Amino acid sequence: MILIYLLKKYSSKFFTAIILAGLLFSSGCSTPEPGVYVEDERSMYRSYAGSDIVREQVKEGFESIKRLHNSVIYRTYQLDPARNLTESDIPGVNLEQIAVRAFNEDHSTAGTGMIISNRMGRTAMLTASHTVSFPDTIWHYDRNTSQSAERSLEAVSVKTSGTHFLFGEGSLMTFKVAVNDQRRDLAILTMDWGGGGNPGLKPLDIPPGNHEKLDWTDMVYALGYPRGVQMVTKGMVSQFAVSPRRSFVVDASFNRGFSGGPIFSVRNDGSGLEWVGTLSAAYAENEYFLSPGAIDERDFHPDREYVGPVFVRREARINYGITYAVGMEEISAFFEENRRELRRLGITTPSFP
To answer: Are 176 and 132 in contact (CB under 8 A)?
Structure first.
């Protein structure tokens, strides 16, 4: 009875003292583990990555990651259907003379480019090949011609000019395609400024990593300009490798304009980001639907039956969350295979581990 009384009398204070001692010991002897967020007086809000190093690297990365604009002009020649001209009839023919009608068409696209070199009077930028590749000739076939025979042409579009450029501070910086690998979906563009002053474009300072070290559920960040909006997005890695153009997959949200943007992974030792790949494309499916011809907004009446011409159109529907990337091994091989040309142009490439 006496023992029970003493336990009831002193147990509360005894166990409280033990808890306090434990808290004091843990707070006095522990140190933050790598990767654990440490409060920074310069920032009011917590970074999603939980690291101020990553936050600053993303900011600095955008100094090297630019929105790339492409403008291509085609001269389209509409042909007389009665002549039944085919592709083999076109070489050596003056299209201006035989065309029923001729007009110019402007095709504009945008993507993301990354500065990799800025020295010796020349700037070099890496991007996705498909953002800067346009066919020299586009054939428009007669829909009524059998596909088993040489098909008759309705029109021919010939590329007359193409421009790739960045918007700088009060200036327009024009690039040209120097190296293009459509199989890997990689291209290098260059701009000469030897006599016009250094444009001050900063090469990427984040070191290359090794995409083969990526594993399921590893987290990555992608930087670029989807729909022209400067943006960073995150994703989780899935292993996937069936072609050089598709080294691995991330579930990051992909929109047009992201192509060519770099992918960075966070090192698990807390030392920051490494460049592990480049955005290539998102999974998409073609959809066919009926659509009216060109109509003016004033002609739109949702409650009135449409009686104008109807056309079959095809659009690619993006399946968001399935984004393909070109890994660093393919990027390194791309640089190595074009080493002689890059040296001739005075372009330095990043050092790979």
So the answer is: no
Q: Is the pLDDT of residue 259 over 80?
A: yes
**What DSSP string describes 321-349?**
EEEEEEEHHHHHHHHHHTHHHHHHTT---
Angle ∠(127,131,134) on CA atoms, nearest 5: 130
pLDDT in tens, 241-253: 656 567 888 888 7
Characterize the bridge pairing of strands 186-192 and 219-224: unpaired
- Looking up tokens 């070109």 gives 326
Buried b (16+ CB within 10 A) or exposed e, 127-148: bbbbbbeeeeeeeeebeebeee
Chain centroid, CA 140 distance in Å: 30
Q: Can you list the domains of the chain with their CATH numbers?
A: 52-344 (2.40.10.120)
Strand, coil or helix: 7 = helix
Question: What is the pTM (predicted TM-score) of this model?
Answer: 0.78
